[in-house]
Amino acid sequence: MSFSINNFRTSLAGGVHANLFQVSITVPSGISLANFTANSTTMCKAAAIPALTLGIIEVPFRGRRAKIPGDRTFGEWTATFINNANQTLRANFEAWTQYIATNDFTTSVISNKNSTDYKCIITVDQLKDDGTVLKSYALQNAFPSEVSAIDLSYDTVDAIEEFSVTFQYSHFV
Known about the structure:
The chain is an alpha+beta fold. The protein has helices at 5-12, 36-43, 88-100; strands at 21-25, 44-46, 53-61, 64-73, 77-82, 120-127, 133-147, 162-168, 171-172.
């Protein structure tokens, strides 16, 4: 193998553009959210390909440690959304987390929910230049665990409001 720019360009094959993606969030069966799927797909500004970690089990043996692969774990996943003028997307995420919560904001009434009523599948697609899907990741049993604050300031004159949502999920396929 030769160290030439032409070999590098051939191997790169154009690369994958980080700004060509789409995120689709299905509405959980137990919640009624207005225009949620269309808004979440359109207004998702930033996301990530989900990470995974392979745990390591260290077994001591005669002064050394043998490393053995352990369980695979999946961390949290975060996406950033643009807040539109009527704030329906943020309101939907707030309603979703309110539905999940074991106690109500105002009454502190505890309720038990079936997890299938509030968990969903989130699909993250990497796109080719022509808009077709290059690779797809489906985050299973996902639900929001945090809706971030929206920073407000008199100094901010050239920006649209954004907020992030952190999701928990069991695994991806």
